[in-house]
Amino acid sequence: MTSLGADTRATEGPIVADKNCEKIHHITESIRCCGAGTAADTEFTTALISSNMELHALSTGSKPRVVTAMTMLKQMLFRYQGQVGAALVLGGVDATGPHLFTIHPHGSTDKLPYVTMGSGSLAAMAVFESGWRANMEREDALNLVKAAISAGIFNDLGSGSNIDACIITASHTEMLRNVEMPNMRVQKERKYAFRRGTTAWKTENVRDLVVNEQITFVGGDAMDTT
Amino acid sequence: MDHIDFNRLKTGEVNLGTSIMAVQFDGGVVIGADSRTTTGSYIANRVTDKLTHVHDRIYCCRSGSAADTQAVADIVHYSLQMYSQTASEPPSVHHAASVFQKLCYENKDQLSAGIIVAGWDKEVGPSVYNIPLGGGLFRQPWAIGGSGSTYVYGYCDATYQEGWGRDETVNFVKNSRVAALALAMSRDGSSGGVIRMCVITEDKVERLFVPGDELPKFWEGHEVLGAPALKKHSGVDTGIVPMAVEV
């Protein structure tokens, strides 16, 4: 079993561009990839490899393997010499068992039992280093992942909003979108809209922007197949 | 940048700071490495395996950029697989080293890779080849590499002796291997973690592992002013744990 987790904040410098983005990307049914770094790079890189993995599976006739996705990703990233800013955590279960890899933008990979990436990786790794044990049950693993992502959300400015998780087993992959939402906006204390008439006016002039309307049907009803 | 500047790594690139070494003895070679991979001052992987299989009896020790060395080792691994199929016999260590050298020399401007190739073959027996940054090829009876190696040149020069046989010395070699690596790891910030070793002989490849808390301890240093000195005994009892055996 492999469990993956991610926060949901996408930033443009100091500004939060997306408060609830999806960072856990689909590679195959039983393989998912968390992406940190440049959002466009992670999005397109994972999509490309996902497509190639499907073609590869059809070509080989076998269930896709995590190492295949890892090799495809690392060879592409190495080719671009770090210009593609994708730092990925690739995890899944295949015919050989559960696997977890980390792939850096320059194309180096590590195979480990627990990994973190991104600006909040140090905070998350601190949680893993104190809490991880071998052969954890699903619930313990999920709690650990949630705790690690929380550490990133609350202690790293580049991470925030909600927690996404994904549990992958041999038989089934469960995507837990927004499994925890520890940053919901509080209910506003009152309605802050201005009353009509707050701004004084002298004259009112209402114009219809549609001056003349003529409806002409083009091409007939049926599709033109001439 | 800081002391790893000589490796000319790009910002953000993952670095195998490293202490690696390989020693040839009568029946085979012993190779060893630390296990630390760094990105700047963060340790990205504290249990890295820098001893990479490129063929049944040929391994390489990687230092420098993790991405570069992994990519090069993968290409060599593929190349040697093809060679085995076409030549119907395993490649010689010299051939493997030449493939490495070709890649490292012809791409020397783009790469940051210091590699030690070591193994056993039928023609020559055991051999160790050092391929430093520029892509030169140097066959040596023993070789050290990586940022941590600079701290143990003196130790290795003083300790190495020719003509070590198998049994009596596999232990001694392990000790000196481990000792040299432990010394390098204690002085070099970019090296650390655990020690991984491989003993490659005609029959098999034996992987050995020394956890971080069982490293031999040397002079750990102490505050001279004030407090009474606590003399540390230089223990070389390494308690090496044999791992799964590869044939």
Can you walk me through this structure?
Chain A: InterPro entries: Ntn_hydrolases_N (IPR029055), Proteasome_bsu_C (IPR024689), Proteasome_sua/b (IPR001353), Proteasome_suB-type (IPR023333). Chain A: It catalyses: Cleavage of peptide bonds with very broad specificity. The complex is a heterodimer of chains A (226) and B (247). Chain A is an alpha+beta fold and 226 residues long. Helix content of chain A is 29%, strand content 25%. Chain A is extended and about 75 Å long. Chain A starts with a strand and ends in a 46-residue tail after the last strand. The N terminus of chain B is likely disordered. In chain B, strands 1, 6, 7, 8, 9 and 10 form a 6-stranded antiparallel sheet that branches. In chain B, strands 11-2-3-12-13-14 form a 6-stranded antiparallel sheet, with helices on one face. Chain B is of the alpha+beta class. Helix content of chain B is 26%, strand content 31%. Chains A and B meet through helix 2 of A and strand 5 and helix 1 of B.
Condensed summary:
Chain A is an alpha+beta fold. Chain A has helices spanning 39-60, 66-79, 121-131, 138-155, and strands at 2-6, 10-12, 15-18, 24-28, 31-37, 86-94, 97-103, 109-111, 163-168, 173-180.
Give descriptors for this structure.
heterodimer; A: 226 residues; alpha+beta; 4 helices; extended; B: 247 residues; six-stranded antiparallel beta sheet; 31% strand
Poorly predicted ranges of chain B? 1-7
So what's the oligomer here? Answer: heterodimer
**Percent in strands of chain B:** 25-35%
H/E topology pattern of chain B: EEEEEEEHHEEEEHHEEE
Straight-line distance between termini of chain B: 44 Å
Instruction: Give the termini separation of chain A.
Output: 57 Å
Number of strands of chain A: 10
Strand order of the largest sheet of chain A: 4-5-6-7-8
* Biggest chain pair interface: A-B, 16 and 17 residues
Helicity level of chain A: 25-40%
How many strands of chain B? Answer: 14
Give the biggest beta sheet of chain A.
Answer: 5 strands, antiparallel
Protein name (chain A): proteasome endopeptidase complex
Subcellular location (chain A): Nucleus
Keywords (chain A): Cytoplasm, Hydrolase, Nucleus, Protease, Proteasome, Threonine protease
GO cellular component, one term (chain A): proteasome core complex, beta-subunit complex
